[in-house]
Amino acid sequence: MKAIRRFTVRPVLPEPLRPLSDLARNLRWSWHAGTRDLFRSVDPERWAAAGGDPMRLLGSVPTERLSELAGDRDFLDRLAAVADDLDTYMTGDRWYQRQSGRLPAAVAYFSPEFGITAALPQYSGGLGILAGDHLKAASDLGAPLIGVGLLYRHGYFRQSLSRDGWQQEHYPVLDPHELPLDQLKESDGTPAQITLALPGDRSLRARIWIAQVGRIPLLLLDSDIEENDLIERGVTDRLYGGGSEHRLLQEMLLGIGGVRAVRTYCGLTGHAAPEVFHTNEGHAGFLGLERMAELRAEGLDFDAALEAVRAGTVFTTHTPVPAGIDRFDRELVARHFGPHAELPDLEVDRILRLGMETYPGGEPNLFNMAVMGLRLAQRANGVSLLHGQVSREMFAGLWPGFDPEEVPITSVTNGVHAPTWVAPEVYRLGARQIGTQRAEEALSIGDSDRWDSVADIPDQDIWELRRSLRELLVLEVRERLRASWRQRGAGTAELGWIDGVLDPDVLTIGFARRVPSYKRLTLMLRDRDRLMDLLLHPDRPVQIVVAGKAHPADDGGKRLIQELVRFTDDPRVRHRIVFLPDYGMAMAQKLYPGCDIWLNNPLRPLEACGTSGMKAALNGGLNLSVLDGWWDEWFQPDFGWSIPTADGAGTDPDRRDDIEAAALYDLLEQRVTRTFYERGRSGLPDRWIEMVRRTLSLLGPKVLAGRMVREYVERLYTPAAHAHRAMNADAARELAEWKAVVRGAWHGVTVDHVETSVASATAELGSTLALRVRVGLGSLRPEDVEVQAVAGRVDEEDRITDAATVPLKPVGSPGAGGEWVYEGPLSLDRTGPFGYTVRVLPSHRLLASGAELGLVAVPPEDVAEAAGLLMR
């Protein structure tokens, strides 16, 4: 029979055990081994059955066991110590509090998904895991972030396989009362709500749940409440589900509703109001519109409000392809804003202009969330050096007249939260070497001194650690594989072969990630005979563990999974290669440490960062990867191997896959397996162990989320906070009015004449040119512009590369026609083909970049030719 109503019955803990509730509701337990050990000791069997979730554990422990623990002095002492440790963690000064300068009072961090722990399944893949690691690292550093997201009642989806290997999706209902969440309540005890206006006099209401992530509150908005109609209740049903209007409503709730939730939370709790708003991908871009509407209510016009919002906004793009960006039909967006919908004080046509693709090659009728995000943020970044370069090229149309390398999008390479992803066995080895406190600091903050101590760990200890991790993975794989085959309809009598799957002494390769086509799940199958030879080699075999989910609407990705599963089902190789369904955080935490090699073979340069290999590296795994994302930036032969690519524009896709698959097989056959199985005098694989050691000591400090968050604080959050403080109402009006004047007058800005002190086509290294430039400023003043010389090496087509800019100074008074003369020296500091040009840019003290307006004036062709721009 089915229940007509459902309740969540919470356990009543004896008074001495009350701190267990606080420990369970702060998600720091998900990365703090001492807290997890405490909960495990409550009831080891129930802890395992609860999947390591303290909330589920406490809901299942019998009253008799709780009473027993309440009288257990040893347990109560441990409980007090862990509770005191959490209190110290929450209240003591950390890295952020020890910095000098005026850092942001608070930062609001918006993301459509957050991967904190498997006990709170609100993530689909890398973006969510990155967001979760960002919050956890910020907590460890003491950075005052407020996370903002949505609470999806069905999460993403659970994955299983049919008998023929086709992906099946399941959407279990999540009850927030059974999750580690608390409702935000008004002072009278009623649930706090935010409301959005919808077309047709409808409303979208949402309650606010709080997940406490260490020191960081994560606000999650939930529309599945009785006050909403059926359609509105379903807005927060599934992550990345539904059609265009459904997605638009999700993103309006995340952005607009998220700002309102932050304001409500700060008002009720006294938390400092954010000075910086960080938009993690374009999904939350509407947050800027809500903040503009707040400023309109305070008397600023649209343009001034835009400048004030931009000053304190950081936008991070995670996609290297336009197809990965949410785009909505212009009319759909227009219908949801204006007098009869949301944000009635903002002109709809001005809102639309923020997201329209008004550049060559853009779609004029589509509203682009990333474009809006960039226009609403004064600071933007990609998530690796290579991805920053790709992003500058992809969005260059927003800054016409500038070379891609000058587009104001920087990069902060992602990192991973080591306390979450480092296996307990690895941590214990490090703590034994340098002490518990230093080991914790090495993982959360990181510096080379702490990580250098890896050099002193004996080879035997490293090799025994790696084998024990491999053995744990073998047991985990067999258990999961048996469960998967039962879901596929197999009987127990058919599954005896699973006891022989994988071998703890065989080189183990891991490949686990989402399954879009560009990640090339099946590249390893390109030559099945060679793959079989590798798997079944009599002396140097390999074994491969594969996992990953395709988007429910991506039949192409599902076909790739099915193709791989059918290969893994082959009785000849099924003991050497497995596919594990339902990839998630719980599986990943076992998979990364147990793999000797982490394989990554995307189509370059379509991997924005790709952090899974970082997690493997922190556990002593070596990377075998295409030079893409973070690997392109930090690869050294010490850390692993790079797969050669054939990414020329003219390469046929099938031919490219053949070439790169052959390169992968060659590396495995000739270098990887030989290094793993080759033994030195000690009977150990000396070269392999040395690579593991160098991976940990040299790569370890780089891949930390602590390093990443420190970079965000220093390079983006703090400058944004300073800009926000400087952009008061008067400054915002001044900047908006100045921009309007400059845009209106820019047609009158010209470079009329360029001359230099060197007449010949050659010059000596170290000599200096004297430049003299005559420019017309029209109605603008010299203080409105900066005249620059741009110089550097030139390529075969006379394009300046590796350019340096030198500001020129006005001399004298304007001429009869209003033209000005600018002069300055240009040092010749490099040999070979050298060139220069001059340009005029807008200049104002409140601009973050000279490219911000996308305006530039350069010499016309006849002036350029007369100036003798090139010297060879």
UniProtKB/TrEMBL annotation:
Catalysed reaction, written as an equation: [(1->4)-alpha-D-glucosyl](n) + phosphate = [(1->4)-alpha-D-glucosyl](n-1) + alpha-D-glucose 1-phosphate
Cofactor(s) required for function per UniProt:
pyridoxal 5'-phosphate
Coiled coil spans = none
Keywords for this entry?
Allosteric enzyme, Carbohydrate metabolism, Glycosyltransferase, Pyridoxal phosphate, Transferase
Q: Which domain of life is it from?
A: Bacteria
The keyword Transferase is annotated on this UniProt entry: yes
Q: Where is the DUF3417 domain?
A: 13-120
Q: Which InterPro entries match?
A: Agluc_phsphrylas, Glyco_trans_35, Glycogen/Maltodextrin_Phosph, Glycogen_phosphorylase_DUF3417, Pyridoxal_P_attach_site
The EC number on file is 2.4.1.1
Question: What SUPFAM superfamilies does the annotation carry?
Answer: UDP-Glycosyltransferase/glycogen phosphorylase
What Pfam families does UniProt report for this protein, alphabetically? DUF3417, Phosphorylase
Its biological purpose is as follows: Phosphorylase is an important allosteric enzyme in carbohydrate metabolism. Enzymes from different sources differ in their regulatory mechanisms and in their natural substrates. However, all known phosphorylases share catalytic and structural properties.
Q: Which family does it belong to?
A: Belongs to the glycogen phosphorylase family.
What is the protein name given in its UniProt record?
glycogen phosphorylase
- According to its UniProt entry, this protein's organism is Streptomyces cellulosae
